[in-house]
Amino acid sequence: METAKRIAAAREAVLSVVPFFEEHFSKVESLWKRDDTRVTEADLAISKRIHRFITEAFPQDDFCSEEELPPPGVPARELRARFAWVLDPIDGTNNFARGLPQCAVSLALLENGFPVYGALYDHAQKTLLEGGKTVPLSRGGVPAETASPEFDRHSIVSFHFPLKRAQLAELEPFTTVNAVRCQGSAALNLAYNAFGAIDGSVDYNTKVWDIAAAVALLEAAGREIAFRGAEAFPLREVSSEMPRLSWFAGTPSFMRRARGLGLI
Questions:
Q1: pTM above threshold 0.90
Q2: Which runs of consecutive H residues, i.e. helices, occur in the chain?
């Protein structure tokens, strides 16, 4: 019951900011943060709106937004509650600011440090993508069928650029054989993976708020994510200086292929 209440609230919270998101798409000025990522007034406004919505409903829960992190030099904020919320108010801010459609509002519900539900408003499809540990995948409220075809030369992979030369070299078995897509949004790369449009995804440079909601979608789809180096979950603390995450995700056969190549 406690989880179900929060899932309903997450869905409502994300949908409540959609009109604002759409109204400001491609119409806001942006700045560059200290970590060289873009931020707009829309990011900040959506963060505040969802933060207020969630904390008024569940004041005992922890809440983390990319745009409300402890500044550099300040100790990390510990997450001690059973439930925690992880928000990326706009994943794909570069796209949002420039008028490219691949961008999303991404909200995850975590229980004991692990994602159990994710809600993403996908601007490109103008719909809500959701799912989790006990919640079947759905698109706009319509259940989505999940499948995990064998990974072969017809499969599609997604990467996030730029990539270093060494990274490009180790990914050559994919880039020279498979079609490659880049959404400009880690959340959507993984979400489309969960829904079957993409078979395998790789990223060397994300933060936990970029992917928390989509990780729940992957679990709902029966797909896997494996981290190289730092693990994202269980999430116990947040700060603006958290390590960047490197991971491979996709169908079981894609993951077997990556492991066979010694990549994970």
A1: yes
A2: 2-16, 18-24, 41-57, 93-98, 165-170, 172-175, 186-194, 208-221, 252-260
